[in-house]
């Protein structure tokens, strides 16, 4: 978990390989729909370009469809859950498979660095939500709707806070180390 630009996708790719996990990224799934021109993609694009959140129902059914194909369930979730509704639905889903959440990683990066990273990516890759106005909205939505979920996982003793500033490799080493220690 972490705000837009914190490095969730970058680190999830590395961690999935090193720990033999299947990476499930709801942002990537939605962008695949947008590219494929599906009806869901068209609806999602409107929300994503404004920096809002796609409805819980859509997100949960997309994740369920992926989890249904896995046995055992050894997954790394990137950008999900993002609301209390998604977190509760995830707990229910996982329980129905006899699985559960082992750890939640919080990547911490200051706002100025987030904006710098995302504007840089916007210029390089042209992701349509990487413009200043949408970045600000995504950051606000993260603080309002997603960050409170960290308390939910903290109460369960599952959160590892990691400093997300530094080289990609430094951050990866920190995450790897944090997963070997008891949560605070
Ligand atoms: P999503 O795709 O999840 O985007 P996001 O949360 O806004 O975050 P990003 O993917 O932009 O950043 P990241 O943390 O993955 O960082 P990254 O590694 O890419 O969601 C997009 C939209 O889809 C949402 O706004 C919403 O509308 C919708 N959505 C998705 N999931 C949803 C859900 N569950 N419920 C409802 N709606 C949902 O890195 C960013 C940049 O920084 C890259 O250029 C990278 O190269 C660079 N970088 C990475 N690490 C470093 C480093 N250590 N130092 C310097 N640069 C770095
Ligand atoms: Mg991402």
Task: Please outline what is shown here.
The chain has helices at residues 8-18, 26-36, 39-50, 56-67, 84-96, 111-125, 132-146, 148-155, 168-179; strands spanning 22-25, 75-78, 104-108, 159-163.
Q: Which structural class do the helices and strands define?
A: mainly alpha
* Strand line-up across the major sheet: 1-2
Beginning-to-end CA distance, first to last residue: 16 Å
Mean pLDDT: 97
Task: Report the biggest beta sheet as strand number plus sense, adding barrel if it closes.
Answer: 2 strands, parallel
H/E series: HEHHHEHEHHHEH
Report the count of strand segments. 4
Q: What are the bound molecules?
A: BIS(adenosine)-5'-pentaphosphate, magnesium ion
Give the low-pLDDT segments.
none
Q: Give me the number of helical elements.
A: 9
Q: Approximately how much helix is present in the residues?
A: 55-70%
Report the sheet-strand fraction: 5-15%
What is the global morphology? globular
Q: In angstroms, what is the radius of gyration?
A: 16 Å
